[in-house]
Write a structure and sequence with these properties.
By secondary structure, the protein is mainly β. It has no helices and two strands. The protein has one domain. Strands 1-2 form a two-stranded antiparallel sheet.
C-alpha cells in the first residue's frame, strides 16, 4: 500500500449568536495523519 503522511484540511464554520448579534467564524484546521500499511 502507501506509506506516508496524509494531510487533510478541514473547514469548520461556527455560528455564534450573542443577543441579537450573530457572527460567523470560519476556522480552517489542518490535520496531519501518518499511516503505515
Amino acid at each position: 500500500m502507501t506509506t506516508g503522511p496524509i494531510t487533510s484540511p478541514t473547514t469548520t464554520t461556527k455560528t455564534v449568536v450573542i443577543g441579537t448579534t450573530s457572527s460567523t467564524t470560519t476556522t480552517t484546521e489542518t490535520k496531519s495523519i501518518t499511516t503505515t500499511t
